[in-house]
Structures are given as structure tokens and as C-alpha cells.
Amino acid sequence: MNIKKYIVSGCVALLAFGATSCVGDLDLQPNDPNLVEPGSQNFNENGLAMCYAGIACSGISGAGSSYVDIDGLDGGTSAYLRLMFTLNEFCADEMIWIWPNDEGIGDIIAATWSDNNVIINGAYYRLMAHIGLCNQFLTNTKDDNSSEMQELKAEARVLRAFSYYNMMDLFGMTSFITEDAEAGAMPEQVSREFIFNWVEKELLDIVDNKLISSSPLYGRVGLDGAEALLARLYLNAEVFSGTPRWADCQMRCENIIARHQGTGFNGSGLAEHYLYLFCRDNDAYMPGGSNPGENEILFGIAFNDTYTQSYGGPSFVISGTISNTHYCPRQYYGCSAEWSCIRGRYQMAERFMGQDNQDVRDDLWLRGMMPADPDGAWDAENYTDWFTGFTGDWKTTGGNAIIKFTGRTPNAAKDGGWNMTELPDGTFDCGFPETAFASTDQPVIRLADIYLMYAECYLSGNVGDASKALQYVNYVRERAHAVPFAVTELTIRNLMEERSRELYLESVRRTDLVRNKMFADPAQTVWQFKGNINNADGTRISQRNNLYPIPYTVRSAQPDFKQNPGY
Length: 567
Hints:
Blueprint: H1 3-17, H2 33-36, H3 43-56, H4 80-89, E1 95-97, H5 105-110, H6 118-140, H7 147-171, E2 174-176, E3 188-190, H8 192-208, H9 223-235, H10 237-241, H11 246-260, E4 297-301, H12 313-321, E5 342-344, H13 346-350, H14 394-397, H15 410-415, E6 421-422, E7 428-429, E8 442-446, H16 447-461, H17 466-479, H18 492-503, H19 509-515, H20 552-557
Antiparallel strand pairs: 1-5, 2-3, 4-8, 6-7
Helix pairs in contact: 1-3, 3-6, 3-7, 4-6, 6-7, 7-8, 8-9, 9-11, 9-16, 11-16, 16-17, 16-18
């Protein structure tokens, strides 16, 4: 099954569930048997596509629609991957949304949120709604034990585990319900440790019993994706369960690396070109993609400018990071929408200061204030400009336009692709499409992350091999044309900086900071606007902020639910 072919059917089927914002309604009973009942035509494909579409799309009645009714939040803002980005990037030391009065986002930027923040509420409901979709598929297929259906069910279980992982990461205690619950049952609240153990058991069953394909079709999760999620679970095990699992994480990393070594960059399995991974046609690097020797995207969500139109995922990141000035025209990035609203905090740009200028990971950035005269002098390696104020106008906010995802073709990303031909109607031809929605796929976990995980296991857990840890980090750096680390430079602080340089805009930064006690613990670091939206220097925040609060509306619906400490 090509997921893009069936994603529309999956989105249509989403509507049949009639999900609402009430957590108690998330058992999601189908009301259109032609779409979601076993035995209907294309049920297997459409049913599984719903589980993927629940991550890719917010609804079917246009990109701004939603299959989850969230009071105070529009469908586009409440898209799954956009919410994960918002809660993992804007609260950390990488990105800023320049309109802080939008739907409570200012409190996310400053980490001053409360339990009635609409974005936090939306994330809770969106995750539980997606879990409900996966539960419904598993309920409808529980009596089908064919080998084909067992694999489809394993995929749905991995996607559900991904949502429970995100619930555990963001909220700690979570609502919990599976396909085994009786009809009409309400979710129960369970501890973070319970969810950790449950997700671990699910993924171990799928990975170790090979219930999922090691060679999945394009757009579908396979063995690499399932084991990569398990490695990420173990990487954060001490935070999630209270017990570190460094050796288990490292073992899972080694398994994945062994399946990929021998091809790609220096035999590492990494893609030869970093920027190719975030451009139009990056489906070649996805599971089941056309470049099997460089399938660096171990777990990804497929997007298409026709079939999967969403204001989340890469469309959101591309539109948000490019700027509506003639210094950063949308045509260069294959996008017809330009929002000009995501900017890098100074601390993000600072990570590239003093680095070898050949590092390609910031090649698409626009650094500092642009000159008034487009022909004026401009230092392409000047990172010194601070984001100075929330004016809503890029030309007066300052800061750096930190661009990574694009709608450009890979060749254009490699060789520049800046030549444009002006057409008679006043538009431009850059040699690649300019579309309102991206066909760029969304990486969830990449092989580069796995190499960096191995090194962190060595540094934090004293497991594995020192020379291998150094080599693995340097695979990542050398692929980016950065100067390799020396032995003395392989420290946890430098590794966290390297993770940011490699994985920025990929929705992992908050988790990395929390895991290494840099977010809200006594040894926390401080960055622009942290703790106070009116303080550009930033300040310290309470340790409660290591978790988001359980939304007020959830506890109102189920008064027996407890709140996280400090709220």
C-alpha cells in the first residue's frame, strides 16, 4: 500500500468517528460502516491509513479542518505534528514564534504556562484522539489473525505507541485506554512509569518477534522505525521511569546501525547530503524509498501537496521560517505561502559561531539584520543579531531566519538553485514547483539521531566503546562538513550542542534539555525570553515545567484525575 494513495480515504474515514474534545468520548465509535467496518471494500488499507492520517492531517474539509473539536484552537494550529513542534521547540532554546498573543503561544515561549493553556489542551486531546483511531482499527481487526493483518496491526500499535510516548514525555501521568476496554469505558489515569512499561512491552513484542516488516512499503513504519522508537524510549528511561537504561538504548542503536552500515556516507548508512533530507522528494530517504542505500529516515510521516494538505508538518515549518521580504523570497524555497513568524533564538545561532564555515547545516539560513540596500554589504556568517522584540514584523524583530525544511528539489538544495526566470505574468520559475502545501516528508527519527544516541549512552551511562562513540559523532559532523571532534571534545555539553545543530526543527530539543537537567532543574541553562516574555535576557524557571500540566478541562471531565506537582 502506498500511503499517499490511501491517505485521502484515511482522512475521510477520520470523520466517521466523530471525535470531540471530551476525553470521555475518545472510545470513538464508527458511524459509517462503509468506511470503517470490517468486510467493507478496502477496509484494511483505509483503516490503517486512518492511523497515519491522524498524524499527518488535522481533518478532511480543507487543511484547516479538524476531526477533533478543541475549543479555542483552530484546526490548522491543532495539527498533530504542529502541536508537537510547538511544545518541544518554542519552549526551548532554539525557536521563537514572533506573535506571542496567538492562542497562548507566548506562555509556551516563556515557559509560563498554566493548566488552561489552549495549546497544551489541544495537544492532550489530539494525542488521545489519535490513540482512539488506532484503538478502533485494532478493535475492528481483532479476529483477523492472517499474516497480512498481523503486520498491519503491528504498524497501528507502533503508531499508537508513538502517541503514548508523546503523552508520557509531555504530561507524565496520562489518560490510558486500549482496544481491550469495554464499549463506552472512560480512559483511566495512569502513572508515567506505567506508560513507560506498557510502551516498552508493546515495542519489544513487535521488534523482537519481528511482527513488522524490515522492508516496509514507502510511507509505512517498519522494523527500523519501531526499534528506533524503542531506543528513544530507553534514552529517556531515567526521566520516564526513574531507572536509567543506557545499555538497552545502546544495544538497540547497534542493531539499527548494523542494518545500515556499508552504504551511504563513508559506509555509515547516512545520506550523502544533509540538506536532501529536508527537501521535496526526500521520500527517497524514507522507509521504502527509492534510495535504499541511504534510508536515513527510519520513521517518517509522508506528505504530498495534493493528497496530504496540512497546516502542520513540513508545510508549517517551511511557511513559518521563510520571510516575506525580498531577501528571502518564497520562490527560492518551493513554497507559495510565507508567514515570516518562526525565528531562531540567539542561543541557537550561537551554536554555529566559531564553527567551520563549511558546515552545511545552516546553509539555508538568513543571518542577522538584512541591509536596507539589497546590494549593500552583508556578512553571510554574521550570527550576532539578537531577536529584539515581538513586533510581528521581521524587519524590526531582528534575529536569524533559521531555515532547514524546504519545498525545493534535492539538486537545488545541493548546488544552490538560486537562479530564477521571471515569467510574463510576473511569477518566477526556479526549476521546481512552488506550492501552497509541501511534498516534503516529515522525519520523526533519523539514523543520525541513533548515532548520537549511542555516544550519549557512552558519556552518560559509561557503556559501549569510547572510540566507536567518537567515530559515530564524527560521522554526523563530517557528513555536515564540520571539523571532527577530538577525543577531549566528546563531552555531554558538546554532544547536546551537536544534537541541536543536527536535529533542530525536528521536535526533540525540549526532551534533550529535560533529560540532561538543562531545562528546569537546578543546573538549568537560560536563554532569550525564558521565564518572562518581556525579558530578552531570560531567567530561571520552576522545576514543575519539566512537565506540562494536565489540562483543566480533562480534570473537570474526570475529577479523580490528579494534577502534576506545582500546578
